[in-house]
Specification:
- This protein has a domain at 15-41.
- With 41 residues, the chain is mainly α.
- The protein is rod-shaped, with a radius of gyration of 18 Å.
- It contains one helix and no strands.
C-alpha cells in the first residue's frame, strides 16, 4: 500500500516550498493592505 521511496520526484524542495509560501503570504498581505486602505479612507 505504501512505498518506501520518496513519494514524488517532482515535488519542491523545502527551500523552494518555503519561498513559494512566503510569496503567497506577501501577496495576500499586499491585497489586504490595499483593501484596508481603500475601505478605511
Amino acid at each position: 500500500m505504501f512505498t518506501a521511496d520518496y513519494p514524488a520526484e517532482n515535488m519542491l524542495s523545502p527551500l523552494a516550498g518555503g519561498l513559494v509560501m512566503t510569496a503567497w503570504a506577501i501577496g495576500l498581505l499586499g491585497v489586504a493592505v490595499v483593501v484596508f486602505v481603500r475601505r478605511d479612507a
